[in-house]
Inverse folding.
C-alpha cells in the first residue's frame, strides 16, 4: 500500500480510559485507537494483503475476511493516506508568514536554554516580587493622566515587539524538548488580529511538556517584564508604568481558555483532550439528542474519559458553549447595533471639525479607528463563517 | 419478560457497538499558539474621562457650566467650540 511506510505511530498521552495512539503522516496528526494502530502496524509488517489478513486480529480476537479487512482499510487507513490531498484546516480566517522557520530557529536554538528548571524558578520568583512591589508602590495605579499620540504609538510598537517575543517563547520551548516548530506569522482569529507560531509537532510530547510549551510565551514575556520592572523602579517613568499595565492585561487575555489562545491549549492538555472545542460541542449535541430522544450515532469522547477528567470536561463543555453563545448572540449584535447608532455621528464630527479647520481630538480619531477596525473584523468573520459557506452550499446544490 | 431472540438482539447490538468503538481515528487540529494583539484594549486604556462618541461637541477648550444644557451632553462644563445641531 503506497505511503503506509511513511506513517509513524507514537503513544498518545490523553485522558481516555483506554490507551490511545498518535499517528503521524507527513505533517498531519491523528488520534487513533489501539486497533487502528495495530492495523497500521500489521500492514507495515506484512505488505502482502493475504498475509496481513491472516495475521490481523481485532477486538475479542476477531478474525476478518479479506473483504471486511479491506473495509477497515477504507474506513481507517485511507483517510490518513489521503489527508494531504485536502487543505489543512486551522482556526485562523487568514494568515501570513512573517518569519520563516529557519529564521525563527536562529533565535530558538539560542533561547532554548532559558527553560532550565532553576532559571524558570528564578525568573518567576523575581516577577512575583516585582508585581507585588508594583501594586504597593505605584500610587494611583490606574490614573493614566494626560497622554499624547506619540506615547500611544510608542506603547503599541512595544506591545508588537513584546508579542513577537511571546511567539519566540513557544518556538524555543519546542527546541528545548527536541521537536521542530514552524514559522511565526500574523493572522485573524475570529475578530482578533493575532501573532501565531506553528507548534503542531508538540502533539508528540507528553502532556506536561505540552503545557510548558503552551506557557512558554507568557514565560518569555515575564522574563522581559522583569527588566522592565527594574527600569520602572529606577525611574518611576509613566510610559513604563503604562507598558507594564498593558502587558499584564495582555498576559491575562492570552490565558483565556475559551478562545483558541494559549489558555485553550493549556485547558486541552490539562484535560488530556485533543480537539477540545469540537469535543465540547459533541458533548452538548449528545445531551440534546438524548433529551429529545434522537438517534445517537456515536458515544461522545467525554464518556470514554477517566472519571476525574470527565467531571472537569463536562464543566468546561457547558461553560465554553455558554460563553460562545453569549459572544455570538449578544456581544456581536450589541456591537453592531451601537456601531450603526454611533459611527455615522462620529464621522460627521470628524468631517465637520476638519472642514472648520479644527484638528479633531485624539479620542474622536481613536473611537472611529477602533470601531471601524472591529466592524471590519466582524464582517470578515461573518463572511468567512456564514456567507461564503452558504454561497458554496447553494452553488453545489444548483450544480 | 424479554424473549430469547430479544436478548440475543440486545447482546448482538452491544457487541457490535463495542467492536465499532474499538476502531476510530480523528485528525488533530492544527496547533497554532496564538497571541491576541490587544490593540483595542490598549487604546481603551487611554480613553480618558471624555466619551466623544456620545457628544455633539467638538474641540472643547475650557469648562464652564453654561454649556451643560445646551447640547454638550455628558461633557459637563466643557466649552464647546463648535456644536453640530
Amino acid at each position: 500500500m503506497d505511503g503506509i511506510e511513511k506513517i509513524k505511530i507514537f503513544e498518545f498521552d490523553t485522558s481516555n480510559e483506554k490507551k490511545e495512539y498518535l499517528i503521524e503522516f507527513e505533517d498531519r496528526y491523528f488520534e487513533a485507537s489501539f486497533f487502528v494502530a495495530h492495523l497500521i502496524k500489521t500492514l507495515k509488517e506484512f505488505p502482502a494483503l493475504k498475509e496481513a489478513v491472516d495475521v490481523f486480529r481485532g477486538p475479542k480476537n476477531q478474525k476478518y475476511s479479506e473483504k471486511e479487512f479491506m473495509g477497515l482499510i477504507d474506513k481507517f487507513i485511507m483517510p490518513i493516506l489521503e489527508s494531504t490531498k485536502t487543505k489543512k484546516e486551522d482556526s485562523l480566517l487568514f494568515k501570513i508568514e512573517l518569519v520563516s522557520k529557519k529564521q525563527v530557529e536562529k533565535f530558538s536554538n539560542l533561547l532554548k536554554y532559558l527553560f532550565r528548571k532553576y532559571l524558570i524558578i528564578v525568573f518567576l520568583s523575581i516577577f512575583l516580587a516585582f508585581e507585588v512591589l508594583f501594586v504597593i508602590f505605584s500610587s494611583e495605579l490606574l490614573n493614566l493622566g494626560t497622554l499624547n499620540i506619540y506615547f500611544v504609538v510608542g506603547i503599541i510598537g512595544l506591545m508588537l515587539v513584546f508579542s513577537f517575543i511571546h511567539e519566540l517563547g513557544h518556538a524555543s520551548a519546542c527546541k528545548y524538548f527536541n521537536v521542530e516548530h514552524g514559522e511565526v506569522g500574523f493572522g485573524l482569529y475570529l475578530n482578533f488580529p493575532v501573532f501565531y507560531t506553528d507548534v503542531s509537532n508538540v502533539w508528540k510530547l507528553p502532556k506536561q511538556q505540552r503545557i510548558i510549551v503552551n506557557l512558554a510565551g507568557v514565560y518569555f514575556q515575564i522574563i522581559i517584564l522583569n527588566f522592565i520592572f527594574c527600569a520602572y523602579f529606577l525611574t518611576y517613568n509613566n510610559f513604563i508604568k503604562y507598558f507594564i499595565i498593558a502587558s499584564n492585561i495582555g498576559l491575562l487575555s492570552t490565558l483565556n481558555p475559551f478562545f483558541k489562545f494559549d489558555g485553550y491549549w493549556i485547558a486541552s492538555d490539562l484535560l488530556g483532550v485533543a480537539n477540545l472545542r469540537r469535543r465540547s460541542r459533541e458533548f452538548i449535541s449528545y445531551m440534546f439528542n438524548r433529551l429529545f430522544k434522537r438517534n445517537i450515532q456515536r458515544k461522545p469522547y467525554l464518556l470514554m474519559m477517566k472519571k476525574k477528567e470527565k467531571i472537569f470536561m463536562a464543566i468546561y463543555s457547558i461553560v465554553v458553549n455558554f460563553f460562545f453563545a453569549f459572544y455570538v448572540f449578544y456581544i456581536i449584535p450589541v456591537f453592531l447595533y451601537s456601531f450603526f447608532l454611533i459611527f455615522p455621528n462620529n464621522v460627521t464630527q470628524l468631517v465637520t471639525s476638519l472642514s472648520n479647520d479644527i484638528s479633531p481630538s485624539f479620542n474622536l480619531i481613536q473611537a472611529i479607528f477602533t470601531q471601524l477596525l472591529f466592524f471590519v473584523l466582524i464582517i470578515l468573520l461573518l463572511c468567512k463563517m456564514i456567507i461564503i459557506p452558504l454561497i458554496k452550499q447553494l452553488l453545489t446544490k444548483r450544480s | 419478560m424479554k424473549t430469547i431472540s430479544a436478548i440475543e438482539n440486545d447482546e448482538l447490538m452491544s457487541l457490535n457497538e463495542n467492536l465499532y468503538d474499538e476502531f476510530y481515528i480523528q485528525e488533530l487540529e492544527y496547533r497554532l499558539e496564538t497571541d491576541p494583539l490587544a490593540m483595542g484594549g490598549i487604546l481603551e486604556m487611554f480613553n480618558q474621562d471624555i466619551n466623544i462618541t456620545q457628544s455633539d461637541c467638538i474641540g472643547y477648550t475650557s469648562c464652564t457650566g453654561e454649556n451643560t444644557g445646551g447640547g454638550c451632553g455628558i461633557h459637563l462644563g466643557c466649552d464647546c467650540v463648535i456644536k453640530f445641531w
Notes: Residues 4-83 of chain B form one domain. The CA atoms of residues 10 and 16 of chain B lie 10 Å apart. Chain B has one domain: 4-83.
